[in-house]
Amino acid sequence: MAYEFYYWPTIQGRGEFVRLALEEAGADYIDAARESEGVAVMMRMMEHAAHPPFAPPFLKDGETIIAQTAAILLYLGARHDLAPKDPVAGLWTHQVQLTIADFVAEAHDTHHPIAVSLYYEDQKAEALRRSAEFRQNRIPKFLDWFETILARNPSGGAHLVGNGLTYADLSLFQVVEGLSYAFPKATKRALADAPHVAALREAVARRPRIKAYLASPRRIPFSEDGIFRHYPELDG
Amino acid sequence: MAYEFYYWPTIQGRGEFVRLALEEAGADYIDAARESEGVAVMMRMMEHAAHPPFAPPFLKDGETIIAQTAAILLYLGARHDLAPKDPVAGLWTHQVQLTIADFVAEAHDTHHPIAVSLYYEDQKAEALRRSAEFRQNRIPKFLDWFETILARNPSGGAHLVGNGLTYADLSLFQVVEGLSYAFPKATKRALADAPHVAALREAVARRPRIKAYLASPRRIPFSEDGIFRHYPELDG
């Protein structure tokens, strides 16, 4: 039975981390909120499910509903060989993913530092301040951590964990793509000091299923409605 | 062999969610950074570990180091009967914990909406705006979600998951304690609409091991150095 995947139908957002895993796995899935009536169905499930998601994305596998991006990837990773079978290595993969989630939340807050209920324009002064901090301190700090993990991987620097692709590699690819869209100048500078991260991004983009996905209409373009938004005044 | 737990020695912070689980489990642990030289050891481990933590807290169990609060609790929950054995219920518990983590991050950002590298006083104007949003929209939204989960639990509304205590219950207790310290007026109002959450908080506080812990010197007081800070101007 196909997975039903639920997320806002017009943005990559947090859902994209799950879409990339489903695509790389070659999993049978429906991007359910992109079907007609899909958003209404999604909203009803959030309201009425026995285990209600706090927010999209969420995945329905038979009767099981799983929300929280990192938890969905934990679930999919074990089923589709996108995480090590060894429990310690599996938990390490998950820990890397949770750090990616923290990074993504900070990237979001660069344009919404005050309130998700307000427009960017209503918090632009604060966004300018927060973005400067993000560019100068946070992007380098996070990328340095990923670079260290890659460089320190005893199986070689091609993957974050072990010697095979994991969902964490896919997610790091997506973060670097998003940062490069939102903060092209700052990200280019930071990547110059993170060659393993830059190489991982390129390697993921070349994987046949990912390459086909990125070229397909299933890949929604980046935009100023998503998590990674390009406001030139926030880059520098 | 005792667990070695590492976190900043003078604040509750994110480490407190782990301390509460260790205490309720009656686990043998050392709060390692509170020993002499402990912080220096913690910093060296973050620098040199094969799997370096991005930030404290982290737990050392023999040769395994686990960071990220929710990942540590996932690990401890399975070993100390603080989570259901059933995989679907275990993943649901983790999902609740990840939503608590999101809530905690938002609580932190009320006093640091711009940069962790700046003092509160240097971002107070932004903190006033962000806290108003947090009080008016976010505290009610999160507490309503926890209230719904408790009310909808088929095993009764005493626990978030199933009919026994989980680490998620301990963490929700800590969040409500923290919010009540930081935003006493706003939290009192919100709890009036979340009777199951209020009852869970009281029930956790009465558990013998938690009660003994809270009365001990091991429980660090709340303060304006932690995640939950009481700045009266941010409450209302």
SSE diagram, text form:
2 copies of one chain form a homodimer.
Chain A: E1 3-6, H1 15-25, E2 29-31, H2 38-48, E3 58-61, E4 64-67, H3 69-79, H4 87-111, H5 124-152, H6 167-182, H7 184-192, H8 195-206, H9 208-214
Q: What would your notes on this structure say?
A:
Two copies of one chain form a homodimer. With 236 residues, chain A is α+β, with helices and mostly antiparallel strands. Chain A has a domain of 121 residues: Glutathione S-transferase Yfyf (Class Pi), Chain A, domain 2. Helix content of chain A is 56%, strand content 6%. A four-stranded mixed sheet of chain A has the order 2-1-3-4, sandwiched between helices. In chain A, α4 packs antiparallel against α5. Chain A is globular, with a radius of gyration of 18 Å. Chains A and B meet through β4, α3, α4 and α5 of A and β4, α3, α4 and α5 of B.
Provide tags for this entry.
6% strand, alpha+beta, 9 helices, 4 strands, globular, homodimer, Glutathione S-transferase Yfyf (Class Pi), Chain A, domain 2, 236 residues, four-stranded mixed β-sheet
How do you describe this structure in short?
The structure is a homodimer of 236-residue chains. Helix content of chain A is 56%, strand content 6%.
Structural class of chain A, by secondary structure, is: alpha+beta
Rg over alpha carbons of chain A: 18 Å
**SSE sequence of chain A, one letter per element:** EHEHEEHHHHHHH
Q: Most extensive chain contact?
A: A-B, 39 and 39 residues
Keywords (chains A, B): Transferase
GO molecular function (chains A, B): glutathione transferase activity
Protein name (chains A, B): Glutathione S-transferase
Pfam family, one (chains A, B): GST_C_3
